[in-house]
Amino acid sequence: MKSITRLFLILLVAAGFAFMGCSSDDDDSTSTGNPVCTPNVFIPSNLSAPAEWIDADGTTEEDDEADLSNGDTGEIGDVAVTYADGYWEYDLTGETCIGIIGSVQVQRLVKLIIPAGATVVADTTVLSYISVQQEGAIEAIGTASAPIVFTSGASVGSRSSSDWGGIVIHGQAKCNTEAGVNTASNTEIGTGAYGGDVNSDSSGTLQYVRVEFAGYEIATAKEFNGIFLAGVGSGTTIDHVQVHRGSDDGIEIFGGTVSPSYCVLTYNDDDGFDLDDGWSGVAKNFVIAKGATVGDSFIEYDGTGADDNRPTQSFFANFTFLGQGEGKKNTAINIKKEGALVVINSLFANITDQGIVHQGETNLGSGAFNTAFYEDVTHTGLTDTNGEGTYSGLLSNRFENVVFGAAVASTIGNVIYNAEDLSTTVNKFDADIIANNEFSAAMSFTAPASYWGENGSSDFQPAATAAVTTTYTTAITSFSGVVLTPADYVGAIDPAGANWMDTWTAFPAN
User: Fold this and answer.
1) CB 348 within 8 A of CB 401
2) Which one-letter DSSP state was computed for residue 445?
3) Strand, coil or helix: what is 371?
4) How high is the pLDDT of residue 34?
5) According to DSSP H, which parts of 257-327 are helical?
6) How far is 241 from 161, CA to CA, in rounded Å?
7) In 3D, which of 207, 231, 226 has the Cα closest to residue 500?
8) How many CB atoms lie within 10 A of CB 233?
9) With b meaning 16 or more CB within 10 Å and e meaning fewer, what string describes 354-389?
10) I need a labelling partner for 136 at 20 to 30 A (CA). Which of 195, 219, 231, 452 fits?
């Protein structure tokens, strides 16, 4: 589909937009000197619903959204679009290399469709990013053999974190950013309103997608991420997504009820997975790996938000955390406030420093720390609506069937820390809250730890040792409305099964 006028192309060239050269090699880690591809189509900066359209009988309609029906036709810019199932579809099917310059705003009632196998390259001379507004949608559905790649437009060999702003999605599900309401007037990076009362809201699909070299700091503590999900609802599908070498977090979630799965967050400069402001969801089968010289926490967890009575309720199942070993910054989970964090069937490997850090209280001795970290948090005015099976009430922090690899010091005191006084460690788990965990477990990976960070490809599937094939039997059947099927292995990838990372992930250095 030709989605831009000849005049616009001429203006782009005149403005000095420089996507020069072309590489047809999908393995961009071995190519140098040119962008990964040269766009022949560019997405306009403002994808707004047509003000007038033609219905099925040829009548021109305008303004009244109640008159819209499937098959109506209109234009966005000079591009013919069709209305289907609640959206005007800006469909780029057939395109293989797509460019963006500056911000691309996907407005309400518009769905941006990116086809399988396409590469989207972002101009690096301005801050470029894709922003899906409330009631808008993005449909980027790749396959294992034809993933969709969002990447920098800089020359291969010269790409780096912070080249562009990534993908921002604003939904209508609840958040706890502002006291007393489920909405927020704007994100911290100024991209638009989010939140609401539509917890089942859909903002589309990201599936078999890679986001590379994204993230962008616009002010101190205000950064774009690889993927930023603000108030995104449970009707949104996010699975088989990799965020690689971003300048801030891999995926950051502000509120909402979306439940991502099968995600790979590799070598990002700040946190792998950052959760804030009342997110309530399930994250399953994540690999989070740190580079040798970059990265803060694997997970940063802000427990409450504006109101203590609306905490972030997070359930993590089958995570693999891969550190870089001795002398590296290895905070696996940084819990900044109390909340309801549950981790099951997960694997910590090659982490030699701080495994889990809690910052909820100051100057805690081990007894007080145990109380703050483990005991149920009382939140008034709440009812048990999350369907968490055998666990009654609002869940507190809980770790169960978690394996800490032999690279972690053998005592639990070196895994759990009080962040206010790192000499004060917790020397035991409360048996009622922490169960069935193993420490100093023997485990091995096909690729050695030194290969995880810098060498272009990685194998995160562990060997099938007893430590990672333990059956998880605790009867948690659902959480936040998500049905859970207990896995018979620990970590993100079944050591005895197919590796779901194969063929669609990549690890370019620049």
Assistant:
1) no
2) B
3) helix
4) 85
5) none
6) 17
7) 207
8) 21
9) bbbbbbbbeebeeeebbebbbebbebeeeeeebebe
10) 219
Comparing 140 with 420, the larger pLDDT belongs to 140
More confident call, 329 vs 7: 329
φ, ψ for residue 450 (rounded to 5)?
-65, -15
H-run or E-run covering 308: none
CA distance 416 to 356: 5
Complete DSSP assignment for 192-230 = --EE-S-TT---EEEEEEEEES--EEEETTEEE-SEEEE
Q: Whole-number mean pLDDT of the chain? A: 76
Q: What size, in residues, is the chain?
A: 510
**HSE (side-chain half, CA atoms, 13 Å) at 364:** 22
Question: Is the CB of residue 330 less than 8 Å from the CB of residue 449?
Answer: no
The amino acid at 245: R
Burial of 345 (0-12, 13-18, 19+ CB in 10 A): buried
> Would you state the structure tokens that stand for residue 468, as one six-digit string?
């990672």
Amino acid at 139: E
Query: Per the structure block, which two tokens stand in for 302?
Result: 């802000």
Taking the model in full, what pTM does it have? 0.86
Vertex 112: Cα angle to 106 and 118 (nearest 5): 130
Check residue 65 and report its DSSP letter: G
Are 361 and 417 in contact, with CB atoms under 8 Å apart? no
The mean pLDDT value for 23-49 works out to 72
Tell whether the model's pLDDT for residue 19 goes beyond 70.
no
Q: What is the pLDDT of residue 457?
A: 54
3-class DSSP state for residue 81?
A: strand
Q: What is the C-alpha separation between 212 and 243, in angstroms, rounded?
A: 6
Question: Quick one: pLDDT band at residue 427, thresholds 50, 70, 90?
Answer: very low
Distance of CA 167 to the CA centre of its chain: 10
Q: What does the alpha-carbon distance between residue 109 and residue 97 come to, in Å, rounded to a whole number? A: 25
Phi-psi domain of 278 (left: phi exceeds 0; alpha: psi -120 through 50; beta: other): left
Task: State what percent of residues in the chain have pLDDT above 70.
Answer: 64
CA pair distance 100, 118, nearest whole angstrom: 13
DSSP state of 10: H
pLDDT on residue 332:
75
436-480, pLDDT tens digit by residue?
555 545 556 655 444 444 444 567 887 777 667 665 545 455 555
pLDDT at 330 > cutoff 50: yes
Write out the H or E segment, with its range, that includes residue 468. none
CB 84 within 8 A of CB 92: no
Pairwise CA distance, residues 59 & 44, whole Å? 27
Quote the pLDDT of residue 391. 28
Query: Could you tell me the CA-to-CA distances from 392 to 142, 375, 450, 479 in Å, in that order?
Result: 40, 13, 43, 12
Q: How far is CA 292 from CA 80, 288, 348, 434, 462, in A?
A: 48, 13, 16, 31, 20
SS3 of 334, please?
A: strand
CA distances from 138 to 167, 203, 228 (A): 10, 7, 13
